[in-house]
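Amino Acid Chain and Its Fold in Token Form
===========================================
Purpose: to set a sequence beside its fold so the mapping can be learned.
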Amino acid sequence: MRHYEACLDRHGDSHRGVDWPNPQDAETRYAVMLDLLAGGPDDASLLDVGCGAGHLLEHIRRHDRRIAYTGLDISPAFVELCRRKFPEQRFLCLDLLADDGLDTTFDYVVMNGVFTERVGLADAEMWDFFTRLVERAFDRCRLGIAFNVMSKHVDWERADLFHVSYDRMAEFVGRRLSRHYRFRADYGLYEFTTYVFRAPNTA
């Protein structure tokens, strides 16, 4: 949390403020996250875990998507910013791992950028954090979940990023979440997005 709040202090409400290197790639990620909803119900409900400055909601509005959006972040600074920007929208400030605090479920849950950086954690610590948070978030979805991590299929791995192999991800998702999952790595970035569904998705 301190890392991202420092980015916000330094760069303000911008892609750099949530530690994305450029706005074009950030927009690509938002579109990929929302592709989780393809074939889903109209006005689907969406929980954006790690919502940061609310840029996914901005993307939703720019593209006139009909989505019942709720943002969630552990950082009071980011949640306060979002509530100022979108006073009519629901934003929650809580830690899903420490105290769930959610009494509702959502059609879909997305976690964009929550697991791309290790932020000082050793790989084993990051894996533990990742698996526990994904399982907790999956408990809150009725239809599906999406999240991204850095790929192992790169020219080199950065020590500060969280690189995961397809095999390791498939082992975790298939055993602990659902057999209905899909990897997506067709959008030109050094990462991949995992979609996990509670039932077969034919969209």
